[in-house]
Amino acid sequence: MASFRDFKLNRQLFDAIADAGYEHPTAIQEKAIPAILGGQDVLGIAQTGTGKTAAYLLPLLRKKDKVFGFG
Q: What is the pLDDT of residues 1-45, one digit of tens each?
């Protein structure tokens, strides 16, 4: 089973995820996050409540930190 640590998110993102009580990514997150971080376009279809928003936003927040020097 994958861990959010596998995505090499910055410390602030990882801490926020852990503080929210999440330990393992959902299936959509496990597939989408590495693809987005790798620069691929992603279109994901999954049921409501499966973590699609985080699947799209976590990589964008990580990239934003790299661009602006926060991560």
A: 789 989 988 888 999 999 999 999 999 999 999 999 999 999 999
Residue 55 identity: A
**What are the residues whose beta carbons fall under 8 Å from the beta carbon of 16, sequence distance 6 or more?**
none
* Cα 46–chain centre separation: 15
CA dist 52 to 61, 68, 69, Å?
Answer: 14, 25, 26
Closest by CA position to 24, among listed 59, 66, 54 = 54
Which residues touch 22 (CB under 8 Å, ≥6 apart)? 4
Alpha carbons 63 and 49: distance in angstroms, whole number: 24
52: amino acid identity, one letter:
K
pLDDT at site 18:
94
> What pLDDT score does 9 carry?
87
